[in-house]
């Protein structure tokens, strides 16, 4: 049987069923997403699945879906390989892998969904199952981070569902993304933007990110930042149409929200004392840039716009680089790293800052080409400032990783071969991908010109000089508490729910009559109930065929 699009989310579920029978299957979970690579390049046409719900369809219809599926497959596969080593001795590894596979299923489903209902099913499954990854470790901090994550995830689901219902009403009951390219109401747009924004993690909807990443297992942090945040961005892209009166008016506001968040997160991240927390704020900053790209597309609405390619490439670039850094942080906190390990660690960090011959430099020039002849050309100088800010933030993260080595025993040994090889693949990806992907390769020649090299290198050099002068930053406790207001809000909500005055109602029922009914039902033998069940099922199927 040939592979089809519906196999992509089904295969991880099959792995889960096999794992529950044979736990050793968890060592091979990294194979689950790989069939999707075959479909990316040799896949069939998009398919419709009306037997699921009206309008159900799966496939790829844009470069954004194409490259977001690519990054999802690569990250889930490599992170699964990494986790197979790190979770090997975990007494709760079956629980971890169950939530892992459910999250993977939802993530892969939403990326290939061509209708809102399929996207919503995948998004909900991914979001709720990811709670088990955030709160997997024992202790109060994972519980608090998991509680806040779940509270915001449920709030996001409610807002998305409300926006979905409003959007269906606005489009006259149409249930396809291709039919949703028509004007959208203000309330609908705000519900969808906020709901998906809670997953994307851009400012000011980022409260769960700085709490979740430090306590989540390393592999979970890699897919959370690399793949799951992009699901929120993809939801905004798919559900909210461009070039409508609402989005044109909303575009400048969203652009400046993304711009402010990109730099706010750098300042907040520089004040942190844990490497994974710094990397979490770096993700908040990078999501700000992706939000800016979407806002610019809303105001132009050109279906052939280079902003579409830019969004896809930026998502792929950030996913592999940030996942490599999170894995590196996990290795640095548990194993002794050699100088060549640290040299490799700097590669994805420098790529995020725009190092020449990497995905970061190519994305930077894609950004310049996309906006150079538009109203957004005035924002181009901010790219260099943003590169310097990103470099400063990631230098801070690397220094904290280096400091964490002091707490590791000299007998800890080098990283395991499987974990090291999976991390190596992602760390080298920023220089390998530009050689393999046409959209990146076309920018390489521009980045090698002298003027381009100067423009790409001076932010990194200046950030290095500043970091050398300011070798250590301190943070007052009072200000630090404000940065983590999410924990306070979550605990306060829990307190209010526990102490909410609920009237106690005593319901008295006469159960004698119900007991007689129960006894009469129990008199049926198990053999006798089987024909009744089959008959009722047959009648239901017959009624369905008569109606349709």
From TrEMBL:
Do the record's keywords include Nucleotide-binding?
no
Q: Which residues form the NADH:quinone oxidoreductase/Mrp antiporter transmembrane domain?
A: 116-358
- Topological relation to the membrane, as annotated: Multi-pass membrane protein
InterPro entries named among the record's database cross-references = CPA3_Na-H_Antiporter_D, ND/Mrp_TM
Entry's Pfam families?
A: Proton_antipo_M (PF00361)
- Organism, scientific name: Methylophaga lonarensis MPL
Q: What is this protein called?
A: NADH-ubiquinone/plastoquinone (Complex I) oxidoreductase
Q: Which UniProt keywords apply?
A: Cell membrane, Membrane, Transmembrane, Transmembrane helix, Ubiquinone
- Provide one Gene Ontology cellular component: plasma membrane
Cell location: Cell membrane; Membrane
Similarity remark:
Belongs to the CPA3 antiporters (TC 2.A.63) subunit D family.
Where would you find the membrane-spanning parts of this chain? Answer: 6-22, 29-47, 67-85, 97-113, 119-136, 148-166, 186-209, 221-240, 252-271, 278-301, 307-332, 344-363, 375-396, 417-436, 456-475, 524-547
């Amino acid at each position: 049987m040939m592979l089809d699009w519906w196999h992509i989310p089904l295969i991880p579920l099959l792995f889960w069923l096999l794992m529950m029978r044979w736990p050793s299957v968890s060592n091979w979970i990294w194979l689950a997403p790989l069939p999707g690579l075959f479909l990316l390049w040799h896949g069939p046409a998009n398919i419709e699945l009306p037997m699921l719900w009206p309008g159900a369809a799966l496939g790829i219809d844009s470069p954004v879906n194409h490259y977001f599926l690519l990054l999802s497959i690569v990250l889930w596969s490599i992170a699964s390989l990494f986790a197979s080593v790190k979770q090997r001795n975990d007494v709760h590894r079956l629980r971890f892998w169950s939530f892992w596979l459910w999250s993977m299923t939802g993530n892969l489903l939403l990326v290939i969904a061509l209708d809102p209902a399929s996207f919503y099913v995948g998004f909900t499954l991914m979001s709720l199952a990811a709670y088990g990854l955030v709160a997997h470790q024992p202790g109060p901090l994972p519980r608090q981070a998991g509680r806040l994550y779940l509270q915001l995830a449920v709030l996001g689901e409610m807002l998305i569902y409300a926006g979905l219902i409003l959007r269906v009403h606005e489009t006259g009951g149409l249930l396809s993304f291709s039919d949703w390219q028509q004007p959208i109401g203000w309330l609908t747009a705000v519900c969808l933007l906020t709901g998906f924004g809670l997953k994307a993690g851009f400012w000011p909807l980022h409260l769960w990110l700085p709490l979740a990443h430090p306590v989540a297992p390393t592999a979970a942090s890699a897919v959370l930042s690399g793949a799951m945040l992009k699901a929120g961005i993809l939801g905004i892209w798919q559900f909210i149409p461009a070039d409508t009166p609402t989005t044109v008016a909303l575009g400048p506001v969203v652009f400046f929200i993304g711009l402010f968040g990109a730099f706010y997160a750098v300042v907040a991240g520089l004040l942190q004392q844990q490497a994974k927390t710094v990397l979490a704020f770096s993700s908040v900053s990078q999501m700000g840039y992706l939000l800016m790209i979407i806002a610019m597309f809303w105001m132009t609405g050109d279906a052939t716009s280079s902003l579409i390619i830019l969004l896809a490439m930026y998502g792929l670039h950030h996913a592999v680089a940030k996942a490599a850094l999170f894995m590196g942080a996990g290795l640095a906190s548990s194993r002794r790293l050699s100088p060549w390990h640290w040299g490799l660690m700097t590669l994805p960090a420098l790529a995020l800052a725009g190092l020449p011959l990497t995905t970061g430099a190519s994305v930077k020039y894609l950004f310049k080409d996309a906006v150079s002849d538009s109203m957004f050309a005035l924002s181009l100088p901010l790219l260099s400032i943003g590169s310097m800010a990103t470099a400063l933030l990631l230098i801070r993260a690397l220094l904290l990783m280096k400091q964490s080595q002091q707490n590791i025993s000299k007998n800890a040994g080098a990283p395991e071969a499987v974990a090291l090889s999976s991390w190596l693949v992602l760390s080298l990806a920023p220089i390998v991908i530009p050689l393999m992907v046409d959209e990146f390769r076309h920018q390489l020649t521009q980045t090698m010109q002298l003027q381009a090299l100067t423009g790409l290198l001076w932010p990194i050099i200046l950030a290095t000089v500043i970091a050398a002068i300011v070798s250590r930053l301190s943070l007052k406790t009072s200000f630090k508490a404000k940065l983590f207001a999410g924990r306070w809000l979550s605990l306060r909500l829990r307190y209010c729910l526990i102490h909410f005055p609920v009237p106690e109602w005593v319901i008295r029922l006469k159960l004698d009559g119900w007991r007689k009914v129960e006894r009469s039902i129990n008199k049926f033998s198990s053999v006798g109930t089987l024909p009744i069940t089959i008959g009722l099922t047959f009648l239901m199927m017959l009624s369905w065929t008569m109606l349709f």
